[in-house]
């Protein structure tokens, strides 16, 4: 550490020695940091001229990376002592900015790798990694790192491709999972005056125009990180998806610098109409998949976009979704001509798979044209297509089943499943999933680390200038994969995980739909009951017809099961895919048998219900018959009694007539004389009683007069006394009447 401040020759050798000592030794790293390594390293870098310096700057940055790699404590110490300004200052372009020597390029790459270590925040096993990562990203953006990265990767037209790619990776990692940094990136504007445009628009323009596949993949990562779990950002980008008139200039992407993000994206998608090259279209499709991912509002908005034909007089407008499906078919015919662009179909399929997830409207738009389903079936069964293409086409076909909400004949889930069964059989269809999962792209997706984009730079591993300029991936096709190797970067773990989850849902849903065809008989409990006005015979005939239809459906299910078993048995004889198909057939057989048993059980229950209903009806009918017999018996008894009364009456009348005829005329008493005699006796008795009452009344009146005179003498008001006596008498009379009523 003391020799770092010695003469230049000794200092340089000390740097190399410290670089070797600190590569794996954590204790030595702590000692070096404690001895002030950060201050001495940045002092040497500044003295050597920053990124324009020679190999000594590379050695300093190599030592700095060793001290910061997988060490949160050292990163925190650097952040809280010297800060991040010294390492950010290495990215500043000085002097002739368009001149990038090999050493300057290596120095910039080393500085970008060091910054990326700070962005990632330390070792994966470090418990404080997440908090340290968040703090590092926040401080780096506060120190204007984003401005330097945009200058180096976007505005500088002379930066080498490797530097631009590493710059885009740093930008993507800076905004990944950091809402505030995302907002800052979205607000950045590059250029001045009339040439100014948002930074995201500039990055999109690079994606659509660059000739480097690596630069496209790196810039695509920026949009992936920006849109991941960022619904507001996705909505902001989707709101600009407005089709523009077709350009008249030669390069449709350079005619208007003020074009919105969405308009530029749509123009990039449609660029294949003019030059017949779908390269730009597939790159725009990749960006659109990030904008639509897991955002149903953005998906539905994109479904409403209608694109005009390139020559309006020769074509009709069509929805954006259907235009992309048409480009997928065009890419199939172009693949045989240019095998170097074999990734176009996969990227377009990735967009369609992402778009249709949880979006029944997208499925409906796809099935609106019968040709789409036919083409997709042919693509799945096409032996010349790659494993990845057939697998993704199978996933898209499965999404047309699990997210299909249509009840229209020919467009519902039953129609799609029947088409798959008739075209290739379910076992062959399911085998496409397993072939895809075992392919290089999907098997390596879960194994590769996110940060392992390229080999770290060291003095012994410094690449040549040609290797730095761009990496040729054509030779990577010899690794045993027929798919383009750049797809391993675009098909990230989140997408491959989505495909795996969809695979399980698709298997279960398709087998369920296949084993339960669209019912021809609606089983409604009300239909099992006897209708009003329906006699017993018609009711029984209707139930028999219902049971016959149920039996027909069961026979249909049995026929489907037999066809499926035959398909499984025939495919099981294939030695190449015996293991995978045997597993698929076992699962399907089990599900099929369970569904058949379930159908038979339900039908048996329906028959039992019908038998019970019939027994109840017969019981009620017998009860009504017994009641009718009883009423008839009662009526007969009443009739007999009436007849006997008539006979008795006739007999009595006959006897009366005989009596009258035998005794002669009868003496009729004088009723008026009897009445007069009774009246006289009653009148006599009433007169006697009246005379007795008059005598008593006279005696009482004399007594009243004497009492009145006496009371007057005593000074009593007789009239008032009589009134009081009258009131009391009335009250007593009323109480006696109430008592009588109660009794």
UniProtKB/TrEMBL annotation:
> What Gene3D superfamilies does the record tag this protein with?
Leucine-rich Repeat Variant
Identify the residues that the record assigns to the Vesicle tethering protein Uso1/P115-like head domain, covering every copy. Answer: 197-508
Instruction: List the coiled-coil residues.
Output: 593-655
Start and end residues of each Uso1/p115-like vesicle tethering protein C-terminal domain: 614-738
Pfam families from the UniProt entry: Uso1_p115_C, Uso1_p115_head
Q: Which of UniProt's keywords are assigned here? A: Coiled coil
Q: Which GO terms describe its biological process?
A: endoplasmic reticulum to Golgi vesicle-mediated transport; Golgi vesicle docking; intracellular protein transport; vesicle fusion with Golgi apparatus
What GO cellular component entries does it have? endoplasmic reticulum; ER to Golgi transport vesicle membrane; Golgi membrane; Golgi stack
UniProt-recorded name of the protein: Golgin candidate 6-like isoform X2
- What is the organism of origin for this protein? Raphanus sativus (Radish)
* Encoding gene per record: LOC108813743
């Amino acid at each position: 550490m003391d020799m770092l401040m010695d003469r230049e020759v000794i200092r340089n050798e000390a740097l190399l020695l410290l670089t070797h000592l600190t590569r794996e030794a954590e204790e030595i790293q702590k000692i070096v940091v404690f001895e002030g390594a950060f201050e001495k390293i940045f002092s040497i870098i500044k003295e050597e001229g920053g990124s324009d310096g020679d190999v000594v700057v590379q050695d300093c940055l190599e030592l700095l990376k060793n001290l910061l790699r997988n060490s949160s404590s050292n990163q925190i110490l650097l952040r809280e002592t010297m800060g991040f300004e010294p390492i950010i200052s290495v990215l500043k372009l000085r002097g002739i900015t368009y001149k990038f020597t090999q050493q300057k390029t290596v120095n910039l790459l080393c500085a970008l790798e060091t910054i990326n270590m700070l962005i990632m925040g330390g070792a994966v096993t470090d418990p404080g990694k997440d908090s340290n990562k968040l703090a590092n990203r926040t401080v780096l953006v506060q120190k204007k790192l984003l401005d330097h990265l945009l200058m180096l990767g976007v505005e500088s037209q002379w930066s080498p491709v490797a530097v631009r790619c590493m710059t885009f990776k740093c930008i993507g990692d800076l905004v990944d999972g950091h809402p505030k940094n995302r907002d800052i990136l979205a607000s950045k504007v590059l250029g001045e005056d009339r040439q100014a445009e948002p930074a995201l628009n500039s990055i999109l323009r690079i994606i659509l125009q660059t000739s480097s596949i690596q630069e496209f993949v790196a810039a695509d990562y920026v949009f992936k990180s920006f849109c991941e779990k960022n619904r507001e950002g996705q909505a902001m980008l989707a709101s600009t998806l407005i089709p523009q008139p077709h350009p008249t200039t030669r390069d449709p992407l350079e005619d208007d610098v003020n074009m919105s993000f969405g308009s530029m994206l749509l123009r990039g998608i449609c660029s294949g109409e003019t030059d017949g090259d779908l390269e730009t279209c597939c790159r725009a499709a990749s960006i659109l998949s990030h904008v639509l991912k897991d955002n149903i509002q953005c998906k539905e908005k994109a479904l409403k976009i209608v694109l005009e034909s390139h020559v309006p007089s020769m074509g009709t407008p069509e929805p954006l979704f259907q235009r992309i499906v048409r480009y997928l078919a065009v890419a199939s015919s172009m693949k045989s001509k240019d095998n170097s662009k074999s990734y176009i179909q996969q990227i377009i399929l990735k967009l369609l798979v992402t778009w249709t997830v949880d979006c029944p409207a997208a499925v409906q738009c796809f099935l609106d044209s019968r040709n789409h389903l036919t083409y997709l079936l042919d693509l799945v069964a096409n032996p010349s297509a790659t494993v990845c293409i057939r697998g993704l086409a199978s996933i898209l076909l499965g999404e047309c089943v699990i997210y299909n909400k249509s009840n229209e004949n020919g467009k519902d889930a039953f129609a799609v499943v029947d088409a798959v069964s008739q075209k290739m059989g379910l076992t062959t269809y399911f085998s496409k999933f397993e072939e895809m999962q075992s392919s290089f792209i999907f098997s390596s997706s879960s194994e590769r680390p996110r940060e392992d984009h390229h080999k770290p730079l060291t003095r012994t591993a410094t690449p040549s200038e040609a290797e730095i300029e761009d990496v040729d991936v054509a030779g990577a096709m010899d690794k045993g994969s027929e798919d383009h190797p750049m797809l391993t970067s675009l098909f990230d773990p989140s997408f491959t995980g989505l495909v795996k989850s969809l695979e399980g849902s698709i298997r279960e849903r398709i087998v369920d739909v296949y084993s339960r065809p669209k019912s021809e008989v609606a089983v409604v409990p009300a239909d099992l009951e006897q209708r009003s006005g329906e006699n017993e015979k018609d009711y029984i005939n209707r139930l028999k017809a219902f049971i016959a239809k149920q039996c027909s459906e069961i026979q249909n299910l049995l026929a489907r099961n037999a066809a499926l078993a035959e398909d499984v048995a025939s495919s099981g004889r294939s030695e190449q895919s015996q293991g995978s198909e045997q597993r698929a057939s076992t699962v399907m057989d089990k599900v099929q048998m369970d569904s058949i048993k379930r159908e038979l059980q339900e039908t048996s229950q329906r028959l039992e219900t019908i038998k019970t209903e019939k027994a109840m009806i017969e019981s009620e009918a017998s009860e009504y018959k017994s009641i009718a017999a009883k009423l008839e018996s009662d009526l007969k008894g009443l009739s007999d009694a009436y007849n006997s009364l008539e006979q008795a009456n006739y007999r009595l009348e006959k006897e009366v007539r005989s009596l009258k005829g035998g005794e002669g005329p009868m003496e009729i008493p004088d009723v008026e004389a009897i009445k007069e005699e009774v009246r006289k006796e009653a009148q006599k008795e009433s007169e006697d009683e009246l005379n007795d009452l008059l005598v008593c009344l006279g005696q009482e009146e004399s007594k009243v007069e004497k009492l009145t005179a006496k009371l007057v003498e005593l000074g009593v008001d007789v009239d008032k006394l009589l009134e009081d006596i009258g009131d009391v008498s009335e009250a007593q009379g009323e109480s006696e009447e109430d008592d009588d009523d109660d009794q």
